[in-house]
Specification:
It is built from no helices and seven strands. It has strands spanning about 5-10, 10-20, 30, 40-45, 55, 60-65, 70. It is globular, with a radius of gyration of 13 Å.
């Protein structure tokens, strides 16, 4: 895995730009706390390059900066 070091407000994180989760404005890229990619940290919004995002229990990811959103793979209308 080829990881890129990115400086964030949370410190240096290692980002995998080769994959991620599809978002409405751009992918959410997987981030890691270590350079081996073994300690998963969270997501980087590729639209605005921030890690300031949130994930709910259904797997929805939303960037708190630009509003980029990933809808859950499966959802039940009861939860809406």
């Amino acid at each position: 895995m080829n990881l890129e070091v990115v400086e964030t407000a949370a410190g240096d994180l290692h980002v995998d730009r080769a994959g991620g989760e599809r978002g409405s404005k751009g992918p959410f890229l997987h981030t890691y706390a270590d350079d081996d990619g073994e300690v998963r940290w969270g997501y980087l919004c590729s639209n605005c390059e921030t890690v300031n995002n949130a994930m709910d229990s259904m797997g929805r990811i939303e960037c708190n900066e630009c509003g980029n959103i990933r809808k859950p793979d499966e959802w039940d209308a009861v939860h809406e």
